[in-house]
Amino acid sequence: MSGVRMQKKQQPLERRTMEVRASRRARRGMVAFVCAACMALGVRETAAAYVITKQNKRIEGTDIRAKANGEIVLTTPQGTRTFYPGQYLKAVADKPADFDRAVRLVNAGKHAEAVEILKGIVERFRYLEWDQRARALLAKAYAALGQHEKAAAVFEEMFRIDPSLEKNRELQWAYRDQLLAAGKHAELSRILEEVIRRGDRPDAARAYLLRGDLEMARNQVESAALDYLRTVILFKDQKDVQPMALFKAAEALEKLRDARARELYEELVREYPSSPYAAKAKGKI
């Protein structure tokens, strides 16, 4: 009976530990996300006000503003021109004066201050590209503050405004990390099942790994171990995820008191000696 009571006491602690790990993972993933977002959005920092029409013609201006309905008003030397939704591919304003300050605040770890500035940029530069760049930083700031549900919502807004970003692999994985950290397990599970079903090997390997993390967050250690092992066994060609998969599979087996955990730790050290996970594994063997 005492063993059962002890196990019940330990479960909340293990659950909190998994939540902390998910939060840390989500914050680390945001660095790659912000870099990927800037590349995907492709906005030049020195860009003047301009519009790219559906005919891929660039029209320069001296001032630009957007209405709430998505209409773009561009001031040119020849006069004012209005572009309606569907008539333009992109509308870009000059860089907001406070954007660089927000970047510095994020880099300095002053995320709460950065959030207020970035929210203002999103509002003032809606439909003018800088709102999306601000959202990228806003998601990073929210994640750093542990406000993962807000970070996930920022992702969703980015994808709604620019559906092409849904094809950006790194953005999608950063979003999925935020869903896990936010505890949105049902939504994440549905997404991962779809990723696995599509059969793209790099994404499927990461999907099994993240599904393992999801199961660990639910304290479903056996199921998590199976998904980590699927990644190890079925995706040996995906070298970038193998060290993590080996380590997590070994950790899960160790929790289950399975002797095969040591074999996986040894394989990790042998096959991927320069990996940070190998350094952790050495302390286990």
Can you give keywords for this protein?
9% strand, 3-stranded antiparallel sheet, mainly alpha, disordered N terminus, 12 helices, 285 residues
Topology diagram in text:
Elements: H1 2-41, E1 50-53, E2 58-60, E3 63-66, E4 72-76, E5 79-83, E6 88-92, H2 99-107, H3 111-124, H4 130-144, H5 148-161, H6 169-181, H7 185-198, H8 201-217, H9 221-234, H10 242-255, H11 260-271, H12 276-282
Antiparallel strand pairs: 1-2, 1-6, 3-4, 4-5
Question: In a nutshell, what does this entry contain?
Answer:
The chain is mainly α and 285 residues long. The chain contains 12 helices and 6 strands.
Report on the structure:
With 285 residues, the chain is mainly alpha-helical. The protein has a domain at 50-92. 64% of the residues lie in helices and 9% in strands. It has twelve helices and six strands. The chain has helices spanning 2-41, 99-107, 111-124, 130-144, 148-161, 169-181, 185-198, 201-217, 221-234, 242-255, 260-271, 276-282, and strands spanning 50-53, 58-60, 63-66, 72-76, 79-83, 88-92. The strands form two sheets. A three-stranded antiparallel beta sheet has the order 2-1-6, with no helix packed on it. A three-stranded antiparallel beta sheet has the order 3-4-5, with no helix packed on it. Strand 1 and strand 2 (58-60) form a beta hairpin. The radius of gyration is 23 Å and the shape is elongated. The model is unreliable at 1-10 (pLDDT under 50).
